[in-house]
Design brief:
Layout lengths: L14 H11 L4 E7 L2 E6 H17 L7 E5 L5 H11 L3 E5 L5 H11 L3 E4 L2 H11 L7 E4 L6 E2 L11 H7 L7 E6 L9 E5 H14 L9 E4 L6 H13 L3 E4 L6 H8 L3 E4 L1 H16 L3 H18 L5 H20 L7 E4 L6 H10 L2 E7 L6 E4 L12 E2 L4 E4 L4 E5 L6 E2 L3 H7 E2 L2 E10 L5 E6 L4 E2 L5 E2 L1 H10 L3 E7 L6 E7 L5 H12 L8 E6 L18 H7 L8
Parallel strand pairs: 1-11, 3-4, 3-5, 5-6, 6-7, 10-11, 10-12, 12-13, 13-14, 26-27
Antiparallel strand pairs: 1-2, 8-9, 9-19, 14-15, 15-16, 17-18, 18-21, 20-21, 21-22, 23-24, 25-26
């Protein structure tokens, strides 16, 4: 690939070969940037390949061989893609985990995957992994990227030799070989290890290349916000966007997101909807503190911007639109660095109002759908025609159909090989080549997919009525007084809800919000009783590291307040 967009995505035998091949083509091109010791530091493609080859040799010398699973616990930093590329090149299997995992979580990953080697970024994370390993029989090897206890990672990436020998070895790995083992978030039970072959992630890359073609990506800067252990970020931020020559910049953390956007001036990001919701809420909060005339100007500009992108511009919009944009919207875009063009959103449903807000503001939001078992991207909206409310059309190369009961079925090279050491679960999930997603959806006449609910989460009331909890939860969280919501009522005469108030909210304001919503719902869908509960967080085990609410855990934790009167 040259510096200008190509018409076709290159064919690579595997991910390691792709990374070394790109490094050979772009040795001096900026690839990665990260914050360390009070400054931003860059890594060029050539340096990346040298370090990856050095790590591959060092790991092999330390006893890591083909098929061995290696647990990786680290925040996003260059050493993670360097390590994964090295492992893939020698046919070992990376097992990415979250830095928020407890020792018990690590114990499950170690025991289930059989990993006997672990690499962590800090000694504090090493302590947590070692505590988990103590429950499973220990580790054969441990490496740490930070000076301290354990083997120092930098000692195995110091070899200055050419990467050509490792790159040539990687070329022989077939597309069907196991690339990595990524564990599901465990919203409804223990995480399962998803076996993703190289072909699955490469299929995602090819499909995504066709999807983003209208953006004409060139010399982009990508602010990587989600953890690399998240399957979406793992594919998009670690392999796909780098393969286009995009520079990847690792955000310092959620508390630094606003400052990093100003400093880095990204052009593209991958996010979960919650991030976009928070950005929108903060913008509206700041607008609400301005004089009335400025507030009116902003809302008029947003309305005009939405009419423009929807093709409904009036004569007044054509005359006043550019001025409104310059006065009211351009200063808001400047807070994001002024170059922000597009966001790829996935992992959870997105409130349509959030999508409309960003479209009017300027950046394109491409809402997508997928799951770890499918590489993970299944479908996404096109940047030149994002259909708000849907999750777009299947990526090129993806077959999708809706079963008789409404379940979404998927077939193609993106589908996993199965769940690690779980043949029964694999056979239940992949039947006749079709991945049974467990999600319910519908496809309209234009081929656009809409997700309606999780198959297993449908609530059946005592009267036999079926209710979608995801729909009601989404409507509840759209109310400004409610931050999080879980709806239940299986076997009961009506619905109940666990509600977490938004910042500054209280029982009265939440009650008023529920009443407002109930007035718009059918009798079956109305919330008959609700209880205020503390926030669902990663720390209390009610939120997954990928920001999904563990519904079953939340209902079990708060079962006492949900008992019928």
């Amino acid at each position: 690939m040259a510096d200008t967009p190509s018409n076709t995505y290159p064919t690579w035998p595997n991910l390691a070969a792709m990374m070394f091949g790109l490094a050979h083509r772009w040795p001096g091109r900026p690839m990665l940037r990260h914050w360390q010791d009070g400054a931003w530091h860059g890594v060029a493609w050539g340096e990346f390949a040298r370090r990856a080859a050095s790590v591959a040799r060092g790991l092999r010398a330390a006893g890591v061989s083909a098929g061995d699973r290696v647990l990786i616990i680290s925040e996003s930093r260059p050493e993670v893609p360097i390590l994964e590329t090295a492992l893939m090149a020698i046919r070992a299997v990376p097992v990415p985990g979250y830095v928020t995992n407890t020792p018990e979580d690590h114990a499950h990953l170690l025991l289930d995957s059989g990993a006997r080697v672990a690499v962590t970024s800090t000694t504090a994370l090493a302590d947590r992994v070692l505590a988990g390993a103590a429950l499973t029989g220990g580790l054969d090897q441990k490496l740490c990227m930070q000076p301290g206890r354990g083997t120092l990672f930098s000692t195995i990436e110091a070899d200055r030799g050419s990467p050509d020998d490792i790159a040539a070895e990687a070329d022989d790995i077939p597309p069907g070989a196991l690339a990595c083992l990524i564990y599901t978030s465990g919203t409804s039970g223990l995480p399962r290890g998803v076996m993703l072959p190289h072909r699955a992630i490469l299929s995602n890359c090819r499909g995504a290349f066709e999807l983003v073609r209208p953006l004409r990506l060139r010399n982009e800067t990508y602010l990587s916000f989600l953890p690399l252990s998240h399957s979406f970020e793992h594919t998009v931020g670690q392999f796909f966007l780098p393969s286009l020559g995009t520079e990847i910049v690792y955000c310092r953390g959620v508390e630094h997101l606003a400052a990093d956007m100003l400093a880095i001036r990204p052009t593209i990001m991958a996010v979960v909807p919650r991030v976009l919701e928070l950005i929108r809420s903060r913008v509206l909060l700041q607008v609400g503190r301005q004089p009335a005339w400025k507030q009116a100007l902003f809302h008029r500009a947003i309305a005009a911007g939405l009419r423009r992108v929807e093709g409904r511009m009036t004569l007044a919009d054509r005359v006043a639109g550019p001025l409104l944009d310059r006065l009211a919207l351009s200063p808001v875009r400047a807070r994001f660095g002024g170059r922000f063009r597009a966001a790829m959103s996935g992992g959870a449903p997105m409130d349509p109002e959030v999508g409309r807000f960003f479209r009017a503001l300027g950046p394109v939001v491409m809402q997508g759908y997928g799951q770890t078992e499918a590489g993970p991207v299944i479908s996404a909206n096109s940047p030149d025609d994002p259909a708000i409310g849907s999750v777009g059309r299947p990526l090129k190369g993806v077959e999708l159909r809706i079963a008789g009961d409404g379940e979404i079925l998927v077939r193609g090279e993106l589908v996993m090989d199965g769940y690690w050491r779980q043949p029964a679960a694999t056979a239940e999930t992949i039947r006749d080549g079709w991945l049974h997603t467990g999600d319910l959806g519908q496809v309209d006449a234009e081929g656009l997919l809409t997700i309606t609910d999780r198959k297993r989460d449908i609530i059946v009331l005592s009267g036999g009525e079926n209710v979608s909890p995801a729909r009601i939860e989404g409507l509840l969280m759209h109310e400004p007084e409610i931050a999080q919501a879980v709806v239940c009522g299986d076997g009961q005469p009506g619905l109940s809800a666990l509600l977490v108030p938004a910042e500054g909210g209280d029982a009265r304001s939440v009650g008023a919000a529920v009443a407002r919503l109930n007035a718009r719902l059918s009798v079956t869908e109305r919330i008959r009783r609700h209880s205020l509960v503390p926030p669902f967080t990663i720390e209390n085990g009610l939120l997954t590291p990928s920001q999904k609410i563990r519904r079953a855990h939340a209902l079990q934790t708060h079962r006492s307040v949900l008992q019928p009167d």
